[in-house]
Design brief:
377 residues; six-stranded parallel beta sheet; 13 helices; alpha/beta
């Protein structure tokens, strides 16, 4: 079957994953149309000029989480994808004991028949379960943030797929569940190992990853985002970007609030762009302690920043945006700065990998200004 009429099924569970599927589809369409310069091609009909047609054969399945912020952003991203001419299907897979089984039953035929599978979160247990049905000769992994860095490393080392901030199941019931699920996780890992399956595996990423032999790497430079939105109007101030390090149990809440307060005072920040997983209670505490305007974006920050208005300086702790925003805001004059996380801020329950992983996110960021943790002390 030729690429032009191949069946491509993309599985996304977060707004960022859906954004990166749109970026991958744009890059694929450009390559198939043999456009000479990927970054120079205007992609959208709303901006005039030449348009890259939507990637033929692509169907996007949205598997939404249960939290309202993520679902709201996903619905807006799904609308953008439909505006681009893509087929988007909303498939509930959570929210009840039988929901995952119904979703697997509804998707089984498409999973088996697809020629290419695109996934945004190879760590997702539901996605791993679906991968046991895959017969496709090609697999593509698009970014789900900095988790892609850990995924690439684990695949290269032949390790089981475990999120960097997880410390393992506690108690006998959790260990039993892990043991029962191990065959599914092992099958998923083999799917991403070309030498063992003969499949073509591609990683499409804006992260500084090193892929194992046999896996293809393509850099995501956010060409679709840059062609579709902006350039933004810049304000004179500084904007802070929030993270979910407290919610994932990595950083102490009090330390985080104190660090944000110090950064806001040091750099004259007025706005705080909240991560979609940050809790309302924590955001209220931040607002009262810092006086910052709390902004809850309705789209991934790369699109919000590109549309503007946005500060001339954006400050973040180690997170995905210190790698993606320099691409999305290329040529706009915006400075992206990353503040280290002091090891003293980590919780007692933080995983052994937390310290080195966060340091790696900072150390490998390109085209950013680095701030020592003392700047937030």
């Amino acid at each position: 079957m030729s690429e032009s009429n191949a069946s491509i099924l993309a599985l996304v569970e977060s707004p960022v994953q859906l954004l990166n599927v749109l970026e991958w589809a744009h890059a694929e369409a450009v390559a198939q149309a043999e456009w000479p310069l990927l970054g120079a091609v205007p992609a959208q009909p709303t901006r005039g000029g030449r348009r890259v047609p939507p990637l033929e054969g692509l169907r996007i399945v949205v598997l939404p989480p249960v939290d309202p912020m993520s679902r709201g952003q996903l619905r807006r991203m799904a609308a953008l994808a439909r505006d681009e001419g893509h087929q988007v299907r909303w498939q509930e897979a959570r929210g009840g004991r039988l929901a995952p089984f119904r979703a697997v039953g509804a998707m089984a035929r498409d999973m088996r028949r697809a020629d290419r599978i695109v996934v945004g979160d190879p760590f997702s247990r539901f996605v791993q379960l679906l991968l046991t049905l895959v017969r496709a000769p090609e697999l593509v992994v698009v970014d789900d943030g900095t988790a892609t860095m850990e995924f690439a490393g684990q695949i290269a080392r032949g390790e089981r797929l475990v999120r960097w901030h997880r410390v393992g199941s506690q108690g006998l019931p959790g260990k039993v569940r892990e043991l029962a699920y191990a065959p599914v996780s092992s099958t998923a890992r083999r799917r991403f190992t070309p030498a063992r399956t003969g499949r073509r595996v591609e990683v499409f990423s804006s992260m500084p990853v090193t892929v194992p032999e046999g896996v293809e790497l393509r850099v995501n430079e956010f060409a679709w985002t840059r062609s579709a939105f902006g350039p933004p109007r810049l304000t004179q101030g500084t904007d802070l970007v929030g993270t979910s390090l407290v919610e994932t149990g990595v950083v102490e809440p009090g330390r985080y609030v104190a660090a944000v307060r110090s950064l806001a005072a040091a750099y004259g920040a007025t706005r705080y762009f909240a991560h979609r997983r940050e809790s309302p209670e924590k955001l209220r505490t931040l607002s009262e302690a810092t006086g910052l305007e709390i902004v809850r974006p309705d789209l991934p920050l790369e699109l919000i920043a590109r549309r503007g208005p946005i500060g001339r300086t954006i400050v973040s702790f180690p997170s995905t945006v210190v790698h993606t925003l320099p691409y999305a805001l290329r040529g706009t004059g915006v400075t992206v700065a990353v503040c280290d996380v002091d090891p003293a801020w980590l919780t007692g329950g933080a995983s052994p990998r937390a310290r080195s992983f966060l340091a790696g996110v900072t150390d490998t960021a390109r085209d950013v200004r680095r701030l020592a943790a003392s700047a937030a002390s």
